Amino acid sequence: MTNDNGKRKLALGLSAVLMSSMVLSACSSKDSSEASGNGAAPAGSLKIEIFDRGNAPAGVTASDNFLTNYVKENFGKANNINVEFVPIPRSEEVTKLNVLMASGTDVPDIVFTYDSGTFNKYAEQGGLTDLTPLLQEHGQNLTKFLGEDTLRYGQYDGVQYSIPAKRSTIGKYASFIRQDWLDKLGLPVPATSEELYNTLTAFKTKDPGETGGKVIPLGMTIAAAQYDSLVWSFIKPVSEQERFELTQNLSSRDYPILLPGFKDAIQYMNKLYNEGLISKDFALDENKETLTQNIGNGLVGAFSDDNDAIFYPDGTYDVLTKNNPKAVLSAIDPFTNSEGKTAKPVSAPNGMYIMIPKSSKHAVEAIKYLDWMSTEGHLQYIQNGIEGEHYTLEDGVPVSIPDLSVESSNKLSGGGDIGIIANGRIFESQEKNNEAFVKSFRTQYQDIIAKSLTISTTNPIEPVFTSRPIEAESKYGTTLSDKIKQLMVKATMVPPGEFEVTYESMLKDYMSSGGQAILDERKAAYSEQK
Amino acid sequence: MGYTRYFRRNWQMYALLVLPMLFFIIFKYGPMYGVQIAFKDFNFFKGIGGSEWIGLDGFREVFANQDFYITLRNTLMLNFLDLIVSFPAPLIIAIMLFELKVVWFKKLSQTILYIPHFISWVIIGGIVYQLFGQQSGMINNLLTSLGLDAIPFLSDKNYWLITYLLTGVWQSAGWGTILYLAALAGINKELFEAAEVDGAGRIKRILHITIPGIKPTIVTLLIINLGNMISIGFERPFVIGNLAVMEYSDVLSTFVYRIGLESGQYTLATVVGLFQAVVGLLFLLAANYISKKLTDESIL
Amino acid sequence: MNERAANKAFDTWIVICLTLSVLACLIPFVHILAVSFSGTVPIASGRVTLFPMDFNIEAYKKVFSDAAMIRSLGFTIFLTVLFTALCMMMTVAAGYALSKKDLKGRKIFMFLIVVTMFFSGGIIPEYILTRELHLLNTIWALVLPGLISPFYMIILISFLAGIPDALKESAEIDGSSQFGTLIRIILPLSMPVLATLSLFYAVGRWNGFQDTLMYITKPELYPLQLKLYHMIQNSQVSDLMRMEGNAVSTVVPESLKAATVMFATVPILLVYPWLQRYFVSGVMTGAVKG
């Protein structure tokens, strides 16, 4: 009998352990929720979203560092507002923001996203605060700082539902060529599409880099930075109406798929591919990894890229010169169109969309905060740090002091993510912006960057502005941008004889998957605007 | 036997079930009201309860989308091929390990075989491209240096299927052996000794003792695998797939990601999820039923 | 004699096949190891294969001198042990009860559980539930929602079903309670499957980070895999970062990524060799004889 009892005790013990772990969990969770203070917020309080990239240096976090304290001190204390930063993982921002919005509480008073589709969705569903009256009352400095041209990108159906960040430079792409190869072959710098083609053929046949047949005359990927300059040079000049109606804006990017000349561009890609003039693996290389390796190994003769992409420390240009000390790149602008102009797309003047949820009770404080940031050098402080400690002024442009101590550089952590009203550093004039941009790079690259920055803004094609969102675009955007890339890949890789059939059948699939719906809606929108 | 008496004898079993069932009710059934999103025009700001009912409109939209059928076909195709290629692989490896007499080699290879399970798909993706790329992949570099033609492992859809399957086997086979090894450990050793006395050969022993010994495990896994025929992980097809082979690599999970989550259309994502759940459950019940009839093994 | 030769050939084939498989599994791991010890230029040029080039240990120095990383390792170990222990208790409790084929209501319970393998409420209701239970930003948000995996429970049941009923009955005739039978007879007999399921739960928790992205914002509660994910993901969105205009110095060196992969992977890899002793065959033999 006693033995039996013992077993029973043991058995009950097991259940008890299970039970207590549940109770325990209930207790501790209660404690922590009280500790984190979920109670009613004081009247002057403000919760601000901040990107958590998980790369904050030891000892600081994305939501608690020197610069967040700067905000709390200089904005919060001064206005008697309790500022709190809410970290959101950078790579999951849309998912997490959606969940927070749907949960009804826990939503910060200031949220933002780069995804225009998300912004349109929130606006359409009536979840955002109309900012026009608030801007008039509390945001005059901010309005001045951003300018009408930027602000209009934050409207949905004519209502100011978001504040778009301002971009310091709108230039996107430049092209680069191996100057040492040109010199070796005694060739001039190509200035037109035709000259470029001849140069590429010469690279292929004469292999000036002695690559043993592995030469890639024109480095290519399926990322816009590589193909856009080439593709847009085939697009024929069109009227403003045609451009509005035939452009397809998918996932915040203008695609010229229906504009006259697009087919010629892809046919040209097909020709280059079949003649072995562009990367064989371009279809697999969406994140430029293979291209970067090939450039670094000295296999690539020419390529297009973002105007600054290859110049960062330990970046592509560094690797290239370490592997081939004689290698020299020149910035070029060779893709000429039917008018002989090197037209290429540039960014819209706006960056992320900053929004205030309708449920927020602190919209006034939120606008005051953004307004505060645009005044009296606060943004400059957040972006550049302290004069003398982090930078010195040269001609009114801040130049970083190299080799900062750990303590000093920790102070700058998160600056780019706190200064949400700007993408890049912004000064009184575009020239200053450009100068600051160039000077943020190492001295040996400043000349070529200045040139590539100029190229990227020469003959700019600005994105088409639509005052009312095209519903079909937000609905089919992701699907269609994949379909376009698929079309480009397939039609480029088939033998020239099959190009026509492949292109037409994929275009048909594109149109029936939503392309036609966008076209119809844009046509209607244009006549409405008139 | 009366209910009271039955309960008095078995109350401990029910006591053991209390916490687990509470867990399922709170954490699994609790959030299940979210399923109604499939029948609503989901609005983030009105929440799940406040959104408007739209009946079957979401279903109509999904079923009218041609990509839905292509991705459904690809999901079934890839899972079916996986069932043929990747399902037996861990079983075969586990039996080989079990048959192996050299203890140190056995332990060492077990430990190494399951390493790939711990490498995330993003990293595997990078390695796959370095190995199989057409122009600069290591395998093709080797082939071309031998004077052979490069093979488009990643950009031709049929070769891509092979790459996809092999990567799957490589990533999961070693991990899968663990379960079989645990089952093999439970086989009565006397059976093997008796077989040896009878003079049965190795292959015969495997077929008549080893495999029947772990049959319950094999059948359980097979039934669950069949229940999962219609669902597919996101990462493997997404990372190994590419634009040139989207005809095959585009599956339901990537489709949902594209139409649903990226653009915040939770209604459509939930519709596809619900469709997969219903079909998956039916598959499982059918597999369970058939298995019960054929092998007398079942999980329900 | 003939049979012996056949046996020998069979063994040789097994060794050859396994050696090839082992190499295939080892090589990518060695590659990552090599990258973690290499310099930037050879890595960026794609020249590092199985041996480090420009050998250096800077990446490891950086990982081990990062206090947040070390603390995260400690937290991850604690989380994994706690999670695994609770999961096993719950899974064994449910699995043992449901392995009794004639238990009244068993079919209903099983069906209710199997349904949860297919239907789920989705992340929004799950987030709201976690918030309502006040679990956000606590370790319990990473523990409680995953306590029982129906799949693992079913595996356990199929193992327990393999234990001869005679054993259980004889124990009960001896006067043992059902709890007692579980503790004294069933659990010792099931060591291989218990070890396996513990490993599955532990590895699942160790490698999982999706829930932490939703439920945890306190850096003290970041598991290692989340830190690793941040690091890898950051370099994936580099295109976006450029657009964000603060790309300078956010590039993570590949060697540091590789070293972090090692740091986050090796501890959990060591668990299996330690568990291997439970896989010794013939546990059942003694029991049946006794």
TrEMBL record, chain A:
Coiled coil: none annotated. It comes from the Bacteria. Keywords: Cell membrane, Lipoprotein, Membrane, Palmitate, Signal. Residues 1-25 form the signal peptide. Pfam families: SBP_bac_1 (PF01547). Gene3D superfamilies: Periplasmic binding protein-like II (3.40.190.10). This is Aldouronate transport system substrate-binding protein.
UniProtKB/TrEMBL annotation, chain B:
It comes from Paenibacillus silagei. It is a multi-pass membrane protein. Residues 72-287 form the ABC transmembrane type-1 domain. It is found in: Cell membrane. It comes from the Bacteria. Its main location: membrane. This is Aldouronate transport system permease protein. Belongs to the binding-protein-dependent transport system permease family. The keyword Transport applies. SUPFAM superfamilies: MetI-like (SSF161098).
Automatic annotation (TrEMBL), chain C:
The chain crosses the membrane at residues 12-34, 73-96, 108-128, 140-161, 182-204, 256-275. The keyword Membrane applies. InterPro entries: MetI-like, MetI-like_sf. It is found in: Cell membrane. The keyword Lyase does not apply. It holds the Pfam family BPD_transp_1. It is a multi-pass membrane protein. Residues 73-273 form the ABC transmembrane type-1 domain. Keywords: Cell membrane, Membrane, Transmembrane, Transmembrane helix, Transport. It comes from the Bacteria. PANTHER family: ABC TRANSPORTER PERMEASE PROTEIN MG189-RELATED-RELATED, POLYGALACTURONAN_RHAMNOGALACTURONAN TRANSPORT SYSTEM PERMEASE PROTEIN YTCP. Belongs to the binding-protein-dependent transport system permease family. This is Aldouronate transport system permease protein. It comes from Paenibacillus silagei.
